[in-house]
Write the structure tokens for this entry.
Amino acid sequence: MKKLKLLKYLAVALLLFAVGCNDLLQKPDPATSVKGEAVLTSAEGVKALRASLYSSLRASGGFTTMYFIGPSAISDETRHRSGASRYQGLNELTGNDGGTNGLAPGSGTFDTYNDTYDIINKANLMINSVKDGVLDNQATLDQYRGEAYAVRALVMHHLVRSIAYEPGHEVGGWDKGIVLRTTPTQDLSDVEEAPRATVSEVYTQILDDLDQAKSLLAGQTDNTHITEAFVDGLMARVNLYAGNWSEANTAAGNAINDAAQSLVTDSATVADMFDETGPGHPEALFKVVVNPSTEPIAGDNVNNGLAAYTSTVWVAQVPTNFVINLYDSNDYRLGWYRPCFNDRAGTPVSGCTDVNDEGWEIDKWGGEKGQQADDIPYMRISEMYLIQAEARSKMSGNTYADGMGPLNTLRQARGLNPLVTGVDITSQQEFMNEVLDARVRELVAEGHRFYDLKRLGRDITNPDGSTKIRYDSYRILDDIEADLISANGALENNPGY
């Protein structure tokens, strides 16, 4: 019985693959599902497996709306307006599962834990079970495998940062990470109970995956799929979390050099960069293209999409005064905000002034593709400059002055004057506070704030600066739901639950 239950959470991906549409297979309508026996042994099946790997990200609430908006809602970036309740539990530190933030296990649509292992299993199939020669072009199969390594690393890192401490920041000696599964599950006999690996082991696996991905994706620049620059960027992000400052700086520099994208520097394009009817994410190192008619976000753009939570219809999560007050009046990024408005009804939305004095909503996710749909940029090149700034300031022998260059490069691209060393910033602490503020200005509602505070060992704060979750509280880590532990007898919950 336990094996049957565990199999539910490992997702046997060979039964049917619902093949993605649009750019994934270059077809205008969804392709016919490919039967399980053909998935690993035919060119059509392998292409379907690849499409399903990408489609699984878009179909998961845990890797779309919860991934991007949840970390803002639990921290100090957004709050629900009066009359809206979406993510109110995160704002108020309550949740359906009775645990802490709900960012990882969640429930229902936003079940990130289960979605993670479903995606990992598909990646494992591509990496380990597809034989050479299935595709006429071996370079294409190598590309697909490189993408699978990168996606596996992406979802592993997201899960481990949600339910575990970062390397070097463990509390009470608790070093449990996630269950590492790197071989595919194709049959009930393949299912084995397994314990959580240590945080160090998980980070080693993630970085090994990214090394493999980089070698297989050299020269790939089409950002509607995994690019070499995205792999570099993810390597920079993971090393930043791990406190590997030199490696983070180098990888961020590689991402900047390998990318087909560059920082946008004019006010109009910065303001509209998230609009798919305009610039269309010119800074995205990797984005999932969403077809609103056939492949909506988490099954329903109107109810579950990014725009549904921050703008268009529901305007549920509104930026706080803490966020709005970080911008200078000449900051190009003020174009990412507008007065709260229901586009579908064509009427203003009330209650936003209860959250911020301007009555603004976040318009990064504006649903411009129709049916409240947005493409999903999983990383932008601007993040690389912020990683470089932080990493350089912490590298052995360096000071905050060494991080000022990349920080000022981003500032000037957004219409701001550069900061002056020894005048505007006079200490490492001031510099790190400025870096964190810069990350809010640039990355609000893109999935970072909660994790930025947590990875630095800082308390999670409310918009007024008061403490919401102490870093040494067990609630800084998400819990693992009881049915998952029941399914895997070797799985331990986090302390305090």
About this structure: The chain has three domains: 1-217+472-497, 218-289+375-442, 290-374. The radius of gyration is 22 Å. The domain at 1-217+472-497 is CATH 1.25.40.390 (Serine Threonine Protein Phosphatase 5, Tetratricopeptide repeat). DSSP finds 19 helices and twelve strands in the chain.
